[in-house]
User: Which sequence fits this backbone?
């Protein structure tokens, strides 16, 4: 059973702080990793994708991937109340299925 | 433009009704997906179409019937649903599903909120 695990939270951070969201996955053959943001009652929005080990930065967001440790993280710098949402980690493995496996999501609350 | 549109936004139907959900994308994507999402749960894959052919059916009950009339459109036909089928139904699309080395990013539509009474 291929799994993606996230801490459900809530993760509470003060405005302006760095929020760190973590995700582990079980399938060593996984090649592609995504972070989605989902506001309450809305659909998931893709905010980051990462395919190789290391860091990838986009504005206030940095995705980090460590395939040896089967670990992917998302850092949000200068957190804003508008960042308050559920963050879903999604992993697409190798093999024929190529399905996205979602974690259960981490609820982030940024306190003004 | 990474836009996937879905209609209707909300749908209330009785257990004996037949209705359809529609999804459209104009990004030239060749893979389209239906997901079901219950409250406080992640999206759950239902169907995948690749190049207008059904490539994955995640053992979805036959009261859900997908259709892909062309590469831009995806329908989900609903018949004899149960109250437990009430959920947010999400459509997504990606460039190409069949790539083994690197998967393509999936973009979600706004969803249809379905209530079965």
Assistant:
């Amino acid at each position: 059973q291929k799994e993606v695990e996230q801490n459900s939270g809530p993760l509470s951070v003060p405005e302006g702080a760095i929020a760190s969201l973590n995700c582990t996955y079980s399938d060593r053959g996984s090649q592609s990793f995504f972070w989605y943001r989902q506001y309450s009652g809305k659909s998931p929005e893709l905010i980051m994708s990462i395919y190789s080990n290391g860091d990838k930065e986009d504005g206030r967001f940095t995705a980090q991937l460590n395939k040896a440790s089967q670990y992917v993280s998302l850092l949000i710098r200068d957190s804003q109340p508008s960042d308050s949402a559920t963050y879903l980690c999604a992993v697409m493995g190798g093999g024929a299925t190529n399905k996205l496996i979602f974690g259960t999501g981490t609820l982030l609350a940024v306190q003004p | 433009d990474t836009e996937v549109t879905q209609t209707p936004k909300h749908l209330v139907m009785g257990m004996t009704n037949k209705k359809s959900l529609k999804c459209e994308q104009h990004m030239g994507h060749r893979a389209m997906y239906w997901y079901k999402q219950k409250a406080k749960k992640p999206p759950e894959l239902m169907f995948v179409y690749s190049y207008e052919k059904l490539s994955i059916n995640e053992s979805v009950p036959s009261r859900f019937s997908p259709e892909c009339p062309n590469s831009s459109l995806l329908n989900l036909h609903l018949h004899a649903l149960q109250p437990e089928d009430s959920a947010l139904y999400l459509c997504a699309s990606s460039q190409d599903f069949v790539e083994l080395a690197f998967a393509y990013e999936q973009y979600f539509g706004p969803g249809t909120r379905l209530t079965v009474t």
Remarks:
- The CA atoms of residues 50 and 98 of chain B lie 8 Å apart.
